Amino acid sequence: MSRVRTGRRAAAVAGALAVAAGALVAGPATAQEVEAAAPAVTGDSSIIELFEWNWNSIAQECTDFLGDSGYTHIKVSPPQEHILASDTNTPDNWWIQYQPVSYELDSRLGTRAEFESMVDTCAAEGVGIIADVVINHMAAGSTSTRYGQAGSEYRQFDYPAAGYDASDFHNTGSSYCEISDYTNRWQVQNCHLVGLNDLATEQDDVRATIAAYLQDLLDVGVVGFRVDASKHMPAADLENIFGRLSGDPYVTHEVIYAQGSNEPIVPSEYYGSGTVQQFDFSRWMRNHFAGESKASYLLNLGESWGLSPDDKAQVFVQNHDSPRGGDAGNYLDYYTGGKDYLLANAYMMAYDYGVPSQMSDYSYSNKDQGPNLVGGVNSEVADVDCDAVTGRWTCQHRGAYFAGMAGFRESVAGTAVNNKWHNDEDAFGFGRGSAGYVVLNSESSSVSATFTTSMPAGQYCNVLGTGTVTVGAGGTFTATVGADEAIAIHIGAPYVNGACEGTVDPDPDPDPDPGDGTVCVDVNVNATTWFGQEVYITGSLTQLGTWTAASTAHLGAQDYPVWRGTVTLPAETTFEYKYIKVAPGGALEWESGTNRTFTTPTDAQTTCATLNDTWRS
């Protein structure tokens, strides 16, 4: 299978070469002048949020995978200096990133130099960086001096490294207040959010300081911002701040809002400085794929549903907050949503509404738990290796319903929804111009039908699974779609000479090295788990831990309930193996039955051998 999609990467390199070529006439070019420019965000873009990934790992993933995936942008966690985890009541947490101490680009995710290198590396691969920025507030402080991750001193209402003192905050004295009534606009935008010190963004010096931080990020090469807690700042303040910036960054505001609520602050207030994240869209995904509303109604989703206009909408099924907040039951998520979650993601990426953002993070045993660290509670976040699937990183962005649909969206760019089909219940399909077609079946049984497309006749690969689809001369194809399954085909993934060309393998394997005495084995096991459990393969070989749980090979859940991984084993060797589930506290659950057996092929084989199993209860 070809894993090369050269268009965007080649364009980035060509752009850099064009600048360099121009320099032959104009004079010597600096290194910065020949760097590839990251793409701007458009309605056809695809964002992947790599939550709590460190900068070096993101740079590596751009090189290893994302540059050829179809994703155009990465949303990264807040890059500024933050509090120390040891200064919190729950040191193992993720939310210290959202408590700024200064605007220095030095955090447990990496240094300024590493951040700059990441931005440049990803831009060279045709992928732009969108930074999550926390500008509504500073960290919850203490009357005594504390220190941030990079060593900056701070106290409550006093952050010298950022240039703030008590005069830069709301309600610091006897008028101190915390938000308790979200129907009170003044309180929401002037009191402190769960003890986080609320900046007076109406003041010119505060606006200038925030704008300087944002401009610094733009100068580094960031192309956009997700603004945390925007609803807690008046829209006019944000328009003033973003109006001070040079360049034209993409901006999306976090304005948590639900239709029918009596909250006075609404998304439309923020259109003057950017787009708005659509929390109602995420709720609709749960209602229609896992709730009582028909999934086929989603064929008509849009502004008429009370959502923002298409060009003002940023949509998601899950973000970093949704499964960890008090209203998690309103949303689908990777850990509990199962096939409903995957179908919702496929729909979002295929449909022509807003700019979609998908999510890739780590598994956790409680909603505060932070990512893997290299050492103690104040140490840096550990590296991510999606090829090895180490630690608790899920790497779900490499799965078919993620990367496969990013490739779909790239192929159908600039086209409109057409050729709608539905069964009046929970199965529906639609095309994107003459470039692609998707069918989603949220029924409890399979659905067979003939679908009409505007695609050229030919044989196409189903990027959401196995098999191919043949489109006839009249643009039709007949298919059976299994329960809770989907089909997606597009012109960028034709089936040619027995292979899927121009696609990214959604579950890539390491390239085998024939003749070295080893072979690669793809491991796939269908195993349902409860919250926090992980799945491993163990066995009689050293590479499988010789039945020692602490040394077994971890499998990834990017295509849950199928857990996948790739192991390198001795060639022409018969071995025994089993699967185990490991709970967050370390408790083991072995599958039942006798040991499984398998014999690896000769090392002359140029493709990986495969294990396809189902957990035995």
UniProtKB/TrEMBL annotation:
SMART domains: Aamy, Aamy_C, CBM_2. GO terms for molecular function: alpha-amylase activity; metal ion binding; starch binding. Residues 1-31 form the signal peptide. Its cofactor is Ca(2+). It catalyses: Endohydrolysis of (1->4)-alpha-D-glucosidic linkages in polysaccharides containing three or more (1->4)-alpha-linked D-glucose units. Its EC number is 3.2.1.1. This is Alpha-amylase. It comes from Glycomyces paridis.
